Description:
The structure is a single chain. Helix 6 packs across helix 8 (327-342). The chain has 11 helices and 20 strands. The strands form 4 sheets. It has a 7-stranded antiparallel sheet, covered by helices on one side. A 6-stranded mixed sheet has the order 11-17-18-5-19-20. Strands 12, 13, 14, 15 and 16 form a 5-stranded antiparallel sheet that branches. The longest helix is centred in the first third of the chain and has 16 residues, at 57-72. By secondary structure, it is of the alpha+beta class. The protein has helices at 57-72, 160-172, 180-184, 193-205, 217-224, 226-238, 260-274, 327-342, 362-373, 432-437, 453-459; strands spanning 2-8, 17-20, 34-35, 42-43, 46-50, 97-105, 108-117, 120-129, 134-142, 145-148, 206-209, 243-251, 279-285, 290-296, 302-311, 317-321, 350-353, 383-388, 404-409, 415-419. It has 2 domains: 1-214 and 365-461, no CATH class; 215-332, no CATH class.
Amino acid sequence: MLINFRVKNFLSFREEVEFTALATKETTHSNRIFKSQKSKVRVLPISAFFGGNGAGKSNLFKAVAFVKRLIIRGTSTNDTIDCRPFKLDRHAPLRSSEFGLDLLIEDELYRYEFAVHASVITRESLFLIGKKNLEIFSRGYLNDKQVWGPNNFTNCHFSDKEVGYLLLKSKEDTFNNQLFLNSIHGRPGPIPDLFKRIGTWFSDRLELLSPQGEYGPLVHYLDEAKSFSEFCSQALDRAGTGITELKSDPTDFKDLGLPEKLKEEILSHLEVVLKDEPSAEILVTGPRSRFKIRKSKGKDVEVFRLRAIHKSESDENVPFEIDDESDGTLRLLELLPAFFELSASKCDKVFFIDELDRSLHTHLTKELLATFLETRTEISCAQLLFTTHDPFLMDQEMLRRDEIWFIDKVQNGGSVLTALSDFKGVRLDLDVRKAYLEGRFSGIPNMRRLPRKQELMEAQK
């Protein structure tokens, strides 16, 4: 679970901002707060980020995405690091961009931090948090050289073989522009389970959905999970989309309508994945259609075409291409696999969705959130973070005060982050949405009146 996230000198975040999923003493909806048995932390299942256009909501999402990308994909020897410091301070490019996370993994609390300047990792550390914070490793950068902590890897119960391997990887196989977590992620060798768990959390547990992104498991679930197909059909029907069923029909690879060069690139990608996996699949958007392309070792390529089934006046099934559906329906299709996973009792993923409400009616967005929240208990580990413009989601009957966050721009152009629970005098019976729109809290657009017709005409004279 994501307990805490910190970022400084990155995009619109000039000074450090800090998000925490730790619950306050508020008693509202306490039955859905996860309670850790060992570390005793109480973790919120949901966090909503509100703010005006350009306030920095998507930049918070991009900061988390940057961390994941640098850990999982990493860098090659001569690669530059696409880290973008705050631009409105001429001294900011001279300083490092800083990132930090507190993670709860298998009831152990970890603190991971790193800093980036130009194309160098200037600082990186990992601690096990408890009664006494235990340093697992640390590194710095001084006089154009990496400086590793003197007690790296020796404070944990690692075997001599594991310690030797980690010391070798850190001092000889980790580039100046590479995180140590990346240098050992997915690599063969005697890597301690602790590092495997952390790497797996970033690669498999942290899911990021952008406004234009597609969550790939949609077509996979339609083929593999009958329960998802039923969930999807019910959701689409209740949302009034007119869709009665989603189907994944086999089709021929040559009928995709894609350029030959793109087809070759797709096949090449599948072959690369097949070197390490028994099967590989990819979701492709063609002209008006969407396809899943799958290949297993020793078998031919399989292609499945995703279609939406509507009912005609005579009660006949009429297939529609997916891209013939409305933007709102397409957005719902992108989100349904995520909410299907989130609502499972054993889900331990963290989903961060940027612009959750894009193209969706407020009632539909609230219904999606209710689908997730009504399944939460004190032992549920799934988390949902999302950014939104919709003030109607600012509802104390649905969200606690510590689950509502505001992102705002201050005078120097930097973004700041504040929880509703940080404001004094916010009673449970307060109409938070009304107070927000009246400017009592931060996070609303600070805009002057737009030019009117007469003013535009005078300006053109």
